[in-house]
Design a protein that fits this description.
By secondary structure, the chain is mainly alpha-helical. The chain has helices at about 45-50, 60-75, 85-90, 95-110, 135-140, 145-165, 175-190, 195-210, 215-220, 220-230, 245-260, 260-275, and strands at about 80-85, 110-115, 120.
């Protein structure tokens, strides 16, 4: 599971740090891009050829994880589908090391399993780590998008009002300043009609607030909330359609934190979450890393 990065001086993630891609780049000797898995006889081939453009900008290892992960989450590779490492290597023209390490990443996410005398197979959705940031992204652009939106909404309604209440008891001026900075960015973006920048600053705001709650278990979820907001354009708050009301709710949260008003911070967060729940959402393009 991806968690938020920490800055050395404050213990909190700095602006932009939450968006780092977790995979290492391929060795210099590897090719710059994967070949699509072509061939009319292969389900993998048909699926991969539709996803070649989404993998640009990643190293070979990241590209292979991305393509296979998307294919599994989308259902192009169904449960119990065997994945033969030699075939993957040949089709994508990558080394056995790249294939092996990519399958290990997918196994850690619960998407595949490798067993002696059985090989590597796709696992059912019940085994997936649905809180993994990459799986959140892949589901956001697949057929499970609506289910994920509802599930993330339920999750955020559970943890964010509590996080706001807890954060009010800490009174950290550096946190309040950085939350205020995010509101300033959102206000400027709203004036420019820049919904994407607004959404990214909003995601940073919510992740930082959860980290500021002083609860390590909640803090572990900050990167998940950030990823969810980043790929979905604000599934609960409607921040893909910036409005004065949304900005006001953010400001009231910070005001409550500054005064140590735990109940007020919780109430303002609940108002924010419900404020634009029925608004039309626009999902931005997949991330490039």
């Amino acid at each position: 599971m991806m968690t938020a990065a920490r800055s050395a001086d404050s213990g909190l993630a700095g602006p932009g740090e939450l968006d780092s891609y977790p995979y290492t780049e391929a060795p210099a000797g590897e090719r710059a891009a994967l070949r699509s898995w072509g061939g009319t006889e292969s389900d993998l081939g048909r699926a991969a050829s539709r996803r070649g453009a989404a993998s640009r900008g990643r190293g070979l290892h990241g590209q292979l994880v991305q393509q296979l992960g998307q294919m599994i989450v989308s259902g192009d590779l169904g449960a119990d589908r065997p994945l033969v490492p030699e075939e993957i290597g040949q089709r994508f023209e990558v080394s056995r090391t790249v294939v092996r390490e990519s399958l290990r990443v997918l196994e850690a996410k619960g998407l595949v399993s490798a067993r002696p005398n059985v090989g590597t197979r796709v696992r059912p959705v019940s085994d997936w780590n649905l809180l993994d940031a990459d799986i959140i992204e892949w589901r956001a652009f697949g057929p499970q998008r609506d289910d994920q939106r509802r599930e993330l909404e339920d999750l955020r309604w559970t943890i964010e009002p509590l996080a706001a209440r807890l954060a009010a008891g800490h009174g950290r001026e550096d946190v309040q300043q950085r939350l205020g900075d995010m509101i300033e960015i959102m206000g400027h973006a709203m004036g420019q009609g820049d919904a994407i920048t607004f959404s990214r600053a909003d995601a940073e705001f919510h992740a930082l607030l959860i980290q500021a709650a002083g609860n390590r278990m909640l803090e572990h979820l900050s990167g998940i909330v950030y990823a969810a907001l980043h790929v979905s354009g604000g599934p609960v708050t409607g921040c893909d359609r910036p409005a004065e009301a949304s900005l006001g709710h953010h400001a009231r949260i910070v005001e409550a934190l500054a005064s140590g008003d735990a109940a007020g911070a919780e109430s303002a967060m609940r108002q924010l979450l419900v404020g634009h729940a029925d608004g039309e959402r626009v999902v931005p393009a997949p991330r490039e890393h």
